[in-house]
Amino acid sequence: MEPNVSGGFHDTLVITELRGQYPNVPISADVDFAALTAGDVNPVFLTLPIGKAGVTSGNKRHYDDAFVMELERQTLNLKPVGLMGHLSNDQRSWAMPPEALHWVGATRVGELLWGKAYIVPGEHRDRINRYKAQGKAMATSIDAHADGTWDESLKAYRMDAKTLRLGQIDLAPADRAGIPDLAAVPLLTSEMDDELHAKVFVKEEEHPPLPRNSQEKPMDKLQVINEMTADDARLLPTAVRDAVVAAIPEAPEIALVSELCSTLGVNSQADLTQTVRGLVEEQTNTRKSAIRSRIIELATPDPTRTDDKAIKVGSVRAVVVEMVQARSPKDVAEVESIYNEVATSQLVGDLLKTSIKETMGPNQRVPVAGQPQQGKYFDIPQDA
Questions:
Q1: How many CB atoms lie within 10 A of CB 338?
Q2: Which of 12, 168, 184, 332 is placed for a possible disulfide with 141 were both Cys, Cβ 3.0 to 4.6 Å?
């Protein structure tokens, strides 16, 4: 066995017998649905597995989780086409037969990677419809380039996800599958517009076409809406989505923010945090300015005040102002209480005495008459 393989290959990755429900594989948002289905009065889409993690094909290629993840990414990005069968090796360089499929979506569910493809009208669609009518299984098979390294424990080539270059995802008969013990009947879905032009997926096997002589009514709009999933919301017209959003009650927080914006005189796009922070800062500065002005007012002599507790010595007055400021009064009302306490404190009294001595000079001593031959001095009190 060669240690590695490299180059083009085609391999049937997954054909599985499914007894449960098929997943809803949404059409990629970047697909132009109108252009894709132009002229097709009844667009039909096929859903089948296109990859599986941890599986080894009959061609001894092993596909791990990383490989299937890369296959999903490339399917969504490249939106490959598909044929009924593969091109032969000698046709690869020049042949361009009509496409049977256009892959428009992919979804991973567990180990399985599911794909959705638009089936081109005509012979290919008729053939697939007959397969479905007979309950015949079909296989999906990739046509790609990739490298693989032989893994003795797997007895297969482990395919390298980093080297994958996806070409096509084709259909193949189940009896030619690389994994013959697995099979799947294709799920066909149709895309239709209701009166609101909302695109809704309708599973044909759940809602088969009614006989022409049937008196039953076709599925009504309410039934279609009730069967929609969250994935289908993106297909609703903008006007419908806007109406749904408008019907949702406004959250109290939104009303509160709107009221706050109105009160502050700013629009709804303004940075409320920055606006409120600026208002708080402005309010704080105003309060600090008012407090300091009141301290200076109390400390400055004013002949019009009857209860004047001002500090007449300018140098001491400045110290008193700073001492009151340092006590951090919380508002103007608290300033007077702190000021009275500071102005009558022992420290301020000592500062005033020292300042007066420095200004007036030392106490004067005046001699008075005393006993003969002895001098006598008395301190004469000075006005403060």
A1: 19
A2: 12
With a cut of 50, say whether residue 217 has pLDDT above it.
no
Is residue 1 scored above 80 in pLDDT? no
- Residue for token pair 């859903």: 47
pLDDT value at residue 213: 45
Q: Which residue has the higher pLDDT, 150 or 260?
A: 150
Question: Which one-letter DSSP state was computed for residue 175?
Answer: G
Give the tokens for residue 317. 């007055």
Length of the chain: 384
How far is residue 7's CA from residue 163's CA, in Å, rounded to a whole number? 10
Q: How many CA atoms lie within 13 A of 16 on its CB side?
A: 19
Do strands 101-109 and 81-82 pair parallel, antiparallel, or not at all (unpaired)?
antiparallel
Q: Average model confidence (pLDDT) for the chain?
A: 77
Q: Which run of H or of E encompasses 259?
A: helix 252-264
For residue 20, the model assigns a pLDDT of 55
- Beta bridge mates, 365: 379
d(CA 162, CA 376) in angstroms, rounded, equals: 116
Which amino acid is located at 277 in the chain?
Answer: R
What string of DSSP letters covers 281-323? Answer: HHHHHHHHHHHHHHHHHHHS--TT-SS-----SHHHHHHHHHH
Segment 114-121 shows an average pLDDT of: 94
What are the beta bridge partners of residue 14? 140
The two structure tokens encoding residue 351: 């500062």
Is 48:184 a contact under the CB 8 Å cutoff? yes
**CB 113, CB 56: distance < 8 Å:** no
Q: Which long-range contacts (CB under 8 A, 24 or more apart) does 356-359 make?
A: 356/313, 356/384
Q: Any alpha helices (H) in the chain, and if so which ranges?
A: 33-36, 65-78, 123-134, 221-226, 238-247, 252-264, 272-299, 314-326, 332-343, 346-360
